[in-house]
Specification:
single chain
Length: about 90
Amino acid sequence: LNDSFIILDEGQNSTPEQMKMFLTRLGFRSKMAVTGDITQVDLPRETRSGLIQVQNILKDIDGIKFVYFTEKDVVRHDLVKEIVRAYDKNDNKT
């Protein structure tokens, strides 16, 4: 895919094989963005998320960046911040 801007949305629901297939389609003068929330994986329990895996595989490659958001970045209803915070607190208990 040359001369393109390619977006993979809901990347947390890709398998490792699907993520690799997507990322290796990058063409000349193109850019890619993968979005996703690793706390909202909808894959079967025995299936690993490609987005979770790719963080470790590609973290040291120049030209690849990861951006992480917190409840402070929520631009929805104020209650959404509280909901995210409550889930984070619950997840940290386990």
